[in-house]
Structures are given as structure tokens and as C-alpha cells.
Write a structure and sequence with these properties.
Radius of gyration: 23 Å
Number of strands: 7
Helix content: 10-25%
Strand order of the largest sheet: 1-7-6-5
Order of helices and strands: EEEHEHHEEEHH
Number of helices: 5
Oligomer: single chain
Strand content: 15-25%
Distance between the termini: 33 Å
């Protein structure tokens, strides 16, 4: 089973442990291991000494790229209304296969707005997996291609638009997008209590072609 996750950019070199300075260049390697994808962020010195030759030949190698480290921004006040990025992060953390179509649509939206950048496409457990990087934060997202069909697209788009508008509350997080929580039925009254209770007044009353890269997605509200 594929687990979806976000791997943040490291604040220090994985090889020597030295903290990255603001605007310092670094090298990133991504490997496919038994437990999932593993990311290594390496400083320039360690890269030249230990990794520049043969890194791509190591077992499980998936991808390589270079980046520039930026100090994390100061914390901001939380907002209630979701945006595409915050919603995607929450869905990835929930790690529920029922949300795969919504995660895919959100990733496509962010890619089109150039907020995410595709680094690699790999096949894992018989599924195509997109590896995205957030250019500003350096976070890496792994998103599975759900191979959406045209007759499924409208429903997924509506679910995503509703999640963006209303947010992902604790009750919604337990059910997939598009399903409403169902109230638990009340237990029947005890016979004695039922006999003594007075009657209460009634309450007022197209085709099946995959659309992986040409799906129209809802605009960010």
C-alpha cells in the first residue's frame, strides 16, 4: 500500500549535520525504500566528497535536484477558510485512500498556478506516482494518479470546491469527500419508561478515457 506524505526540506545536511545557511545551495536525492520514499538533503561540500559520483547508481534511486535553502518564514495567524495548498496538506496527513481523487485535483491546481513543481513520475505498486516539490518551502509531496474518467470528474470537482469553501472539519475527516455524516440512531426506550412517558407532539416537519493531464479543475475560491 502506498502511503502519501510530505517530506520537508531538512534544516541541516544529512551527511555532516551542519545547519544550512540562508540562501545556501544544497543537493537533494530521493530514494524508494521498503517503508516509502526517503529524501536526503546534502550540503555542497559533502556532495562533492561523497555523493557526486555514483549517487544515481545506488539502489532505489528515484530522482535528484538542486535547491536553495531559505529560512522558514515566521508563523502566521491561522485562517479558517481553506486554500488549495492547506487542504492538500491536510488530506495528505489524513492518508486515506478515499481522498486520492481530491488530492490529485488539488495538486494539478497548484501545479498550474506554479505553486508546485513536478520533479518526477514513477511507477510504484502498479500505480503512477507524481513527486511534487513546493519551490518556496522545499517540501516534497507524493500524489498517486487516480486515473480519473470523464464520468467521474464532475463529482470530484464538486467535492473539492465544497471542501475549499467549507474546510475539512473533524467529522468530514472521518468520511470521504461527497459523503455526509450519518447520525447514530437513538436507542429504544425502556418498557417502563415508555409506558409512563406522555406522547410528544410531532416535530415540524463520455467516455471512459483517462483525463490525468487535461482535467479541468475548479478555480481557487
Amino acid at each position: 500500500m502506498i502511503e502519501w506524505n510530505i517530506q520537508s526540506r531538512a534544516h541541516a545536511c544529512e551527511a555532516c549535520g551542519k545547519s544550512f545557511a540562508d540562501k545556501e545551495a544544497y543537493h537533494t536525492l530521493l530514494f524508494d525504500e521498503r517503508t516509502g520514499f526517503r529524501r536526503l538533503d546534502i550540503c555542497r561540500g559533502c556532495w562533492e566528497k561523497q555523493y557526486s559520483e555514483g549517487a544515481r547508481d545506488r539502489k532505489g534511486f528515484v530522482s535528484y535536484w538542486q535547491g536553495v535553502y531559505e529560512l522558514p518564514p515566521p508563523p502566521v495567524e491561522p485562517i479558517h477558510k481553506e486554500n488549495a495548498e492547506s487542504l492538500l496538506r491536510k488530506l495528505v496527513e489524513i492518508n486515506d485512500a478515499r481522498y486520492v481523487p481530491a488530492m490529485y485535483i488539488l495538486a494539478v491546481m497548484l501545479e498550474r498556478k506554479r505553486l508546485l513543481k513536478i520533479k518526477e513520475q514513477v511507477m510504484r505498486d502498479g500505480q503512477r506516482v507524481f513527486i511534487y516539490e513546493h519551490p518556496r518551502t522545499g517540501d516534497v509531496f507524493t500524489v498517486v494518479d487516480p486515473v480519473l474518467q470523464l464520468n467521474q470528474l464532475d463529482a470530484v470537482q464538486r467535492d473539492v470546491a465544497e471542501l475549499l469553501e467549507r474546510g475539512l472539519g473533524p467529522t468530514v475527516a472521518e468520511k470521504p469527500a461527497g459523503e455526509s455524516p450519518t447520525a447514530e440512531p437513538a436507542p429504544p426506550p425502556e418498557p417502563a419508561a415508555a409506558a409512563e412517558a406522555a406522547p410528544a407532539p410531532p416535530e415540524p416537519a463520455e467516455e471512459d478515457k483517462p483525463v490525468a493531464e487535461r482535467a479541468e479543475v475548479p478555480a481557487k475560491p
